[in-house]
Amino acid sequence: MKVNRLGLNPHINHEWVALAGFKIFLRNLPKAVGSVDPRVYFRDKKVLDVGCGTGTDMTRFQRLGAKVQGLDIHPTRPDIIFGRASSLPFPDASFDIVFSKFLMDLLSLVEIKAYAREAFRALVPGGKFIYFGLMVEEDANFLLTTARQAGFDRTYADEILTTFVMNKPKN
User: Can you give the CATH number for the domain in which 63 is found?
Assistant: First the structure.
């Protein structure tokens, strides 16, 4: 299979796939966080998009009123900083939401554990660790167990296209 410098197959419309995934994520959001309107939920929230790639979801969050920071090991825009999920380059309690989409299948189990700990550290009390993507049951259970070990409460998990929302307790 032919891929470009970013590892993407040039024959697949990746923007369409990203948009479709984001729309599914937003459709699941009311069940996950109890807010019907994403514009209300994300307004003025500080969102960290980990593994943001080209930043298309960053733009979508910004349109919903969020203040977004992108992080990727291959930054593609000036507003995306270099960094790894396993070692977030931000102070404690910097974000309301740590988000990633289709990232876990790119990380080793050691990196997933480190990412859960780092997400917990980077979130404000009451913040949300949100992951959207496809995962086999064994990996999903590993993520949930790891997130609980990091200190998160499980608040929502969808079984089909996996949407996990883990809550950092307020105390």
Answer: 3.40.50.150
